[in-house]
Design brief:
The chain is an alpha/beta fold. It contains 6 helices and 9 strands; from the N terminus they run βββααβαβββαβαβα. The protein has helices at about 45, 50-60, 85-95, 125-135, 145-155, 165-170, and strands at about 5-15, 20-30, 35-40, 65-75, 105-110, 110-115, 120, 140-145, 160-165.
Length: about 170
């Protein structure tokens, strides 16, 4: 279908303390406003669409003419928690052409979004970032409140870590 855009961002799920890379594939098309999240998301992850829509609205990006589908791959891996928000938001920004998708390559995004676009810290940043590095990622964007924990991984593992207070900071990065 003409006008459909696909974009990908990356994050890390934790099952126990075992990190698993997750690809957020976002498809955007023109049409009735909708926002679906698929790929075995539990309730907190499904609610991410509400936080993402509100946070993007704070940046002046209205999604009322977009039909959006986020696929969290691999689909058979259970997705729990709010750490997927930032990657879903970044993939959405790329899918609606608000940022260039190539800037997301090699980058892991970890953070919960508030309705205002502020980025809240998430649990398990240390094992998530170790897993990201082991999976070949070179950069991570985390909430400022996770910055100290993330810096420990950066120092040992050679991972570039950027901290962000809000979604506008992520766009700037």
């Amino acid at each position: 279908e003409v006008g459909r855009m696909l974009a990908t961002a990356h994050t890390i799920a934790l099952l126990g303390l075992v990190p698993h890379p997750v690809r957020v594939e976002m498809q955007s098309g023109r049409g009735t406003a909708s926002f679906d999240v698929v790929g075995l998301p539990e309730a907190t992850v499904r609610e991410s669409r509400v936080r993402v829509r509100a946070a993007l609205g704070q940046l002046g990006i209205a999604l009322h003419s977009h039909s959006l589908v986020a696929n969290l791959a691999p689909a058979d891996l259970r997705k729990v928690g709010s750490c997927f928000d930032l990657a879903i938001a970044a993939a959405t920004l790329a899918a609606v052409s608000a940022i260039e998708e190539e800037h997301l390559a090699g980058t892991v995004l970890l953070g919960e979004l508030s309705l205002t676009g502020a980025i809240r810290p998430v649990r398990g940043v240390l094992p998530r970032l170790l897993g990201a590095r082991a999976s070949g990622f070179v950069r991570a964007i985390v909430a400022r409140d996770n910055g100290a924990e993330a810096a420990a991984v950066a120092a040992c593992e050679g991972l570039e870590v950027l901290v962000a207070d809000d979604l506008a900071d992520v766009v700037a990065h």
